Amino acid sequence: MVENSQEQKQEQQPERSLSEHFGSSEPSQHPSRWNACWEEEYTPWDRGGPSMALADLLPFLPPANTLGSQKKPLTALVPGCGRGHDVLLLSSFGFDTVGLDVSERAMAEARKNAESIELDEVYPLKGEVQSRGTYKFLVGDFFGQDWVTESGVDGGKFDLIFDYTFGCALPPSARPAWAQRYKDLLAPNARLVCLEFPSTKSPEEPGPPWAMNPHTYVAHLGHPGEEVVTDEHGGVLKDKVEPPREDGLMRLLHTKPPRTHAAGYKDGQVVDCISIWCHTAAA
């Protein structure tokens, strides 16, 4: 298991929970609460580097701009990107990548992080990728349209979307809209990659992060925009999960990655899962 300095730094901070910071605030107040965390330099979700699970998976997905390819580079999106570690990782694989966050301060930190990364060459080009993809950091509401227009991505459809500590940062009531938004943002043959976290947390525990076990993803992504059957805490009832709709998203892969962030381990074992999704019609 690999731990990095940012995770160690967060562990050294005085104990404080995000759920206490958010309390009983309304979802409309959440953007200002996230920004306050950045202003106070309290970012326990930041891992200090890119996702090792994503880095290990990407070589098995189609490369974005391989040597001799005449095709346009593929596009990628990382919502809730924070300091942009995974944005820079995807760029190193050749994806033209958009990092999105609701916090102005977070995007300032991401741009600063990108400058230091370029100087230190922490993210060398991967595999047969001939040139680094572009990257852009945008401030905006995931459910809004302004940032999509600003991204310049053709048709507002992305070839790859990566979700890590984003779905779980949204209150359970937002999950139908979260799933619908992914469906709308995915290009016809695109892939959604989810590093599922926190997969072992109980729905009874307050968030953020709210519990996101594997069948929660299946229930919502398979039925974008629908209310699914949950308990009184918003936890999805596993025995009530339905097969995906014809116009929903289908899970192509579900596995435990060989390595992940320190937060994804329990008793020395990986508890994070990684999943790949596509439009059901494209499966």
UniProtKB/TrEMBL annotation:
Keyword annotations of the record: Methyltransferase, Phosphoprotein, S-adenosyl-L-methionine, Transferase
One Pfam family here: TPMT
Compositional bias of kind Basic and acidic residues: 1-19
Keyword Transport recorded: no
Region spans: Disordered: 1-35
UniProt-recorded name of the protein: Thiol methyltransferase
